Amino acid sequence: MQERRQYIRYDIEGDVLIKTEGDVLSSINGNLADISFGGLSIYIPEKIPEGSVVKFELLTKLSNKPVTGDGKILYVKEIKKYDRSVYRVGVEFMDIDKKSIQHILTYIQQDICLKARKKKIA
């Protein structure tokens, strides 16, 4: 099967605050599943409609300040995690500081290379 993704995804720990707009403004806290140059995937306790435009704030130990932006919900998938239902949500970046994302991705790639070198030497 051919890969359809445009960018490589990297697993990373972090917290994401999603703000939805509509009839009622709401905030949902989630856990980061993975990130790429084009978007991120998170686990949240509530369902968000596909196609929704959201604001988000990403907090990870790889960046000294929150990364904020706007995104579009591409998919929502209900899954079982820790004996309860949560939603894995894919967010495509629409408006974001690409330098902040590149900084995080560069750090992840450097860490992968460093671990590979250490493994090769051992």
What this model shows, in words?
There is one protein chain. With 122 residues, this protein is α+β, with helices and mostly antiparallel strands. It is built from one helix and seven strands; from the N terminus they run βββββββα. It has one helix at 98-121; strands spanning 10-11, 15-20, 26-35, 39-44, 53-59, 67-81, 84-96. Strands 2-3-4-7-6-5 form a six-stranded antiparallel beta barrel. The mean pLDDT is 89.
Query: How many beta-strand elements?
Result: 7
CATH architecture: Beta Barrel
Compute the number of helices: 1
Query: Please, how many domains?
Result: 1
Provide tags for this entry.
122 residues, alpha+beta, Thrombin, subunit H, 6-stranded antiparallel beta barrel, 48% strand, globular
TL;DR?
The protein is 20% helix and 48% strand. The protein has one helix spanning 98-121, and strands spanning 10-11, 15-20, 26-35, 39-44, 53-59, 67-81, 84-96.
Topology:
Blueprint lengths: L9 E2 L3 E6 L5 E10 L3 E6 L8 E7 L7 E15 L2 E13 L1 H24 L1
